[in-house]
TrEMBL record:
It comes from the Bacteria. Pfam families: Nitroreductase (PF00881). GO terms for molecular function: oxidoreductase activity. PANTHER family: OXYGEN-INSENSITIVE NADPH NITROREDUCTASE. Gene3D superfamilies: NADH Oxidase. Belongs to the flavin oxidoreductase frp family. This is NADPH-dependent oxidoreductase. Keywords: Flavoprotein, FMN, NADP, Oxidoreductase. Residues 8-162 form the Nitroreductase domain. It comes from Mesobacillus subterraneus.
Length: 259
């Protein structure tokens, strides 16, 4: 495929054919991830490939019962990983640190860059993916199921396989609403209304076209997309709860040392 077609043709795929992804193709996708940029070329990430059906059934709950966890032939989980590097430092009699929040952020960025490289390679080969925010939100459960040692935390994950659906690409905010030149230019109210105008319409229509989502919206008395996002979809309470989950797991995984 042409590179621009891959970029602009991205869709989240939640329904998959019952077709195996060959090891040769999977290796090509993983090789693309490994070529991603990384901080200091440390490559402080690990990629967990999950094909086992029984393990995917266990991950289904941790991933908030999203159907693609079971239906897709492969799950990829990208983890911030300083376990490997810390062991390398140890055997070379170098100071062993990288056990703080900054180190986690470096590993998380490395993992995310690798994940997106793999995603582009997969889509270029005709496969589909669907990123799952549950990877970080329930990192403790997923880390337990994937047997992650200290200094390893799941950050990004997605399903992978051949698409069994062909959804239309979702809209994006206009470029002028996202890109700032030289310095950040804050938004006036009229700018916000203009930037989100199409999103308000398209997002609302998507909810109204889905009987289950429409019923939920009506039961909650929601009047616009912003209310859907903050009252139904991404509540303050849920984000506070997930925040505590992540922070506690970072401490448990030895990423919160302050000395």
């Amino acid at each position: 495929m042409e590179f621009n077609d891959v970029i602009h043709g991205h869709r989240s795929i939640r329904e998959y054919e019952d077709w195996e992804v060959s090891q040769e193709l999977l290796d090509q996708i993983l090789d693309a991830g490994i070529r991603a940029s990384s901080s200091g070329n440390m490559q402080t990430y690990s990629i967990i490939v999950t094909k086992d059906k029984e393990l995917k059934k266990k991950l289904y709950s941790a991933h908030m019962e999203q159907s693609m966890v079971i239906d897709a032939p492969i799950l990829l989980t990208f983890c911030a990983d300083f376990n490997r590097m810390r062991k390398w430092l140890s055997v070379n009699e170098a100071p062993v640190h990288f056990d703080n929040f900054m180190s986690f952020m470096i590993g998380a960025i490395d993992a995310t860059l690798a994940a997106q490289n793999c995603a582009l390679a997969a889509e270029n080969a005709g496969l589909g993916i669907c990123y799952m925010g549950s990877t970080l939100a329930n990192c403790d459960q997923i880390g337990e199921l994937l047997n992650l040692p200290s200094n390893v935390v799941p950050v990004v994950g997605y399903s992978l396989g051949y698409p069994a659906e062909n959804p239309a690409p979702r809209d994006r905010l206009p470029k002028h609403g996202l890109v700032h030149y030289e310095q950040y230019n804050d938004y006036a109210d009229e700018d916000i209304l203009e930037i989100y105008k199409e999103r308000n319409i398209n997002g609302w229509n998507r909810y109204m076209d889905n009987p289950r989502l429409k019923e939920m919206t009506e039961q909650l008395g929601l009047k616009n997309l912003a209310q859907i996002y903050t009252i139904a979809k991404y509540t303050k309470e849920s984000h506070l709860e997930f925040s505590q989950t992540v922070l506690k797991y970072l401490e448990r995984q030895n990423f919160m040392n302050n000395k």
